[in-house]
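User: quick one, sequence for these tokens?
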């Protein structure tokens, strides 16, 4: 029996999303427990608990990390759409497909620039997610530290 996709060496959510640490209280049902782990992690920055091989506190990771739903894993997307390969972290939310530009940090790429340079990749990921879920999504958002834009394909 094949298990499907796993994180492997990808740490994109740890280096880009910022759903723990400073802003974690709005996402975390146990923010005191998260604080006790010493996590310092702002959006679009690198979590201080990540290293070259992954999360140093993986077995004790806080709820936002445990509950994160990466489309690459959940929907068994092809390897080229793994966040560290495609440079975009794909999630399915109530608003539709949300793609976060990996490592967009202070000096990083804007959503508009990423879209303009990666139109085919974005279309391909949307197609793969739609095929995998059997849903045609009416809305796709591309998010970076600099901006959030709606993508029309």
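Assistant:
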């Amino acid at each position: 029996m094949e298990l499907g996709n796993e994180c492997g060496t990808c740490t994109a959510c740890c280096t880009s999303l910022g759903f723990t640490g400073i802003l974690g209280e709005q996402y975390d049902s146990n923010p005191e427990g998260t604080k006790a782990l010493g996590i310092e992690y702002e959006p679009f920055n690198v979590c201080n608990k990540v290293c070259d091989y992954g999360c140093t506190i993986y077995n004790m990771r806080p709820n936002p990390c445990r509950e994160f739903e990466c489309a690459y894993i959940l929907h068994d997307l092809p390897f080229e759409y793994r966040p560290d390969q495609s440079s975009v972290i794909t999630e399915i939310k109530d608003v539709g497909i949300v793609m976060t530009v990996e490592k967009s940090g202070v000096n990083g790429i804007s959503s508009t620039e990423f879209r303009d340079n990666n139109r085919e990749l974005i279309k391909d990921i949307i197609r793969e997610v739609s095929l995998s879920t059997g849903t045609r999504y009416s809305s796709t958002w591309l998010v970076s530290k600099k901006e959030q834009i709606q993508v029309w394909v």
